[in-house]
Design goal:
InterPro entries: FAD-binding_protein (IPR028348), FAD-depend_C (IPR049516), FAD/NAD-bd_sf (IPR036188). 29% of the residues lie in helices and 24% in strands. It is α+β, with helices and mostly antiparallel strands. β2 and β3 form a beta hairpin. The structure holds flavin-adenine dinucleotide.
Amino acid sequence: MLEASNVYLPLDAALPSCAGMAQAELAHALGIRYADITSWKFSKLSVDARRKNDVHFTASFVFEVADQEIEEALAGKRTKTKIQVKRHVPYEGYRVGEWLGGDAHPIVVGMGPAGLFAAWALAKSGAAPIVLERGEDVDARMASVNSFKEGGALNPESNVQFGEGGAGTFSDGKLTTNIKNPRCRDVLHIFAQAGAPEEILWEGKPHIGTDKLVNVVKTMREQIIAWGGEVRFGARFEGMEFEDGRIVAVRGSQRQEDGTREKFVLPASDVVLACGHSARDVFDRVRNAGLLMERKPFAVGVRIEHPQKLIDKAQYGNAAGHPALGAADYKMAVHLRNDRSVYTFCMCPGGEVMCSASELGGVVVNGASRHARNGRNANAALLVNVEDRDLRGDDVLAGVKLQRRMETAAYRAAGESYKAPAQRVGDFMASAGKFNRSQSEHRSRLEVEPTYARGVEWVDLNQVLPPFVARSLHAAIPLFNGRIRGFSDPNAVLTGVETRSSSPVRIVRDKATCQALFSQTTDCGLKIADELAGAAAASRTAEGEPIAGGFYPCGEGAGYAGGIMSAAVDGLRVAEAIIASYE
Ligand code: FAD
């Protein structure tokens, strides 16, 4: 079997109904006959929209040829058009060592991507992990989330941030990442085997969609249980006990059917803490346990909404609407003269602005899409980086306090009913003296209906956002318009506040843990422990002692991931380290 990469593919040829055309393009590109190819499938398919008058796909194919001689001639070939052919190395499946830890069942706290993948790999090895998840199973959780969206009460234990599947369950399910780690391929295959659409294995920018993710998560839970693991919902981690530098127990409480909670203590030799970035009570507990934490960079801002058609046109020109393309996305960043960075994040084509609060008295937004991405609006976070000077005092949890202040301000501004404060771009800029209001109204023909399900309250966001955020957005929005025409349209909608895009704190791993985790691979963006622990211990904004043995802070909340893919990879990596520690 061979693999050819970098093949130019017209849009039509990527349609499932035009498989013959794709085969013809491949044969033509390789200088062989159509009939020489006996089977093929895509192994990568990325849109190239750099030139709007030539939007096309760049494809990689895995294929077979009938003739041995042709195969020999093609293997290793490089064409003038930069097509490369090599022998295909098939994926052999995720391999994990055998569990040699006997009855030392590892405990995994949290069932977001980090905890889910850690538990999945531990269960596959035979470790029979016990998963403690504070929220509900995904079906009950969906009912809680929908009830909140429709005006019901917020369940602080089970919502868009908390519950089976974690924060990414009600998301676009984008699986793109900046990390380069061989486990990314494993994550895609594990997701696909659990029912995610097969295209995630070859799409340049794979995404699952909230509607499909729900079932994928359920299937992975069933696998964990089938392999001997145990999953406890409504089980909240509330502390841990150490002896001689090792973790020996976790404390928690289990929700009962009548709503009361029953305390428990579980003996433990290995604990994966994968609690996500919204478990602020856990951050307090880790700090109170005296473990080393440090501030880490994060960002805050708002969501911006445009009609999806505007984004399609801006990105794909006349090709917009072609059935092979689907809804267009974007990703932009600017560095401002005031030294701030403003960037778009977690763009959800054809999506919805999600009611993402997890604390009573706070409003939080984020974005989600269904797999089809066929909603009327595109939305993305518009984020401004937070610097140390924006935080009050030296407290390691000062970032959490800033997030909470913004969430409370948003709640109050929108009438204390969990509606979200929103403003049209034209008004946002005008009230800061940046646009002339009547001119901007005259110019715009856009109609943008906000998608935040609980409804929005039209307010002046300049009065809600911290001044450094509002000022940076004023400067950045017109600059983004230079890249996506219509981005700064006066009728585009800003909805606040987006505060949970990443964790403002890191739970510093000790040297031994990090060596075990990072020895095999290099992960860009994740600093190696020595450096990390050393820097944190010396920092004014870090507190505590390095982590004790057997305790593995993991995923986004612990500060080692940003997004579904990197959290899942971190989960696998931690599981592997635990398994290896018994070999
Ligand atoms: P989380 O997913 O936050 O999971 C933590 C889990 O721990 C939760 O299930 C929580 O209930 C549980 N927990 C917390 N405290 C306790 C406790 N005390 N005891 C027991 N359990 C506890 N990322 C992407 O890459 N692509 C996207 O398209 C995308 N869209 C998103 C859309 C939305 C609406 C949101 C909110 C996030 C989105 N993200 C997206 C971010 C992504 O979800 C996170 O980066 C990822 O989920 C982090 O994984 P995690 O496992 O580290 O933490």
